[in-house]
Design goal:
By secondary structure, the chain is of the alpha/beta class. It contains 12 helices and 8 strands. It is globular, with a radius of gyration of 17 Å.
Length: about 270
């Protein structure tokens, strides 16, 4: 990790029109394979179980897999919106867990190369649609590419997922650095996923926090720790939400605890 100039906290991006209700939570990661999409699904389901009207938006342009993990085939998806065949509202599909999803289309590479102007328009449309929901969970693509950065803007909070792998921690740091320097999110929080214990999760968070303090002069808070749980793999294999198949599992409890902390802090 290389030193950088001090970066301010996360002021709102002023390049997009403001809306009255900012309730979009972006979920990001510096690399793939850290459980970002699974976490996004479980968080949206936890919101629904808590009585909130929630929307899960699959913003992983080109590599979307929310629909795959949930075993659904929506009649309309994000690709149909991009093609002008439907609106975002029309693409919102109810899921049996009590929340809506706007699915992407896995392998649709054209979405990942959208012009910046079209991405900004899509982001604005999502902000307007969010007024119909209590919370919107935006599942971003892994990495720090342009599409990911642009969709992050105007989110209420950005949850960065990491694991205990050194490359995951390094890439999470890189995402925080770029997002902070471009002033794309009001608040970044850390979620440590797939660790053996709370203590191990705190160790991972401490490593990432020290790097942010030393090089960025930032202290992103810990949103929560999710313990490694074989029930997660089972639910993904079965293409079912964890909170449907194993609602009492450790990982499910950990995600619900993160939602409670988000409610208190937002």
């Amino acid at each position: 990790m290389t030193p950088a100039s001090p970066v301010r906290a996360f002021p709102a991006n002023t390049t997009a029109p403001a809306v009255h209700k900012r309730n979009i939570i972006a979920v990001a990661s510096g690399k793939g394979g850290v459980g970002k999409t699974w976490f996004s699904i479980t968080l949206a389901h936890a919101m629904a179980k808590a009585g909130r009207k929630a929307l899960l938006f699959d913003g992983d342009l080109g590599l979307a897999n929310v629909d795959v993990q949930l075993g659904v085939t929506p009649e309309r998806d994000l690709a149909s919106v991009i093609a002008g065949e439907s609106t975002l509202a029309q693409a919102a599909t109810p899921y049996e867990g009590g929340f809506d999803i706007i699915a992407g289309r896995s392998g649709s590479g054209s979405l990942a190369t959208l012009p910046a102007s079209r991405l900004m328009t899509l982001r604005t449309e999502l902000q307007l649609l969010s007024q119909n929901y209590d919370w919107v969970v935006l599942d971003l693509g892994a990495g720090i590419e342009r599409t990911v950065r642009l969709l992050t803007g105007q989110s209420r909070a950005c949850l960065v997922i990491t694991t205990d792998e050194p490359t995951s921690i390094t890439d999470a740091y890189a995402y925080i650095k770029v997002t902070a320097m471009e002033q794309l999110a009001d608040g970044i929080q850390i979620v440590v996923n797939m660790v053996a214990s709370q203590r191990e999760g705190e160790r991972v968070y401490g490593t990432l926090l020290r790097a942010c303090r030393e090089f960025l002069k930032l202290e992103p808070p810990l949103a929560g720790i999710i313990r490694r749980d074989d029930h997660v793999k089972d639910s993904i294999r079965r293409q079912t939400s964890l909170l449907t198949r194993h609602p009492g599992s450790e990982a499910a409890s950990d995600v619900e605890a993160i939602l409670r902390r988000l409610d208190q802090g937002l």
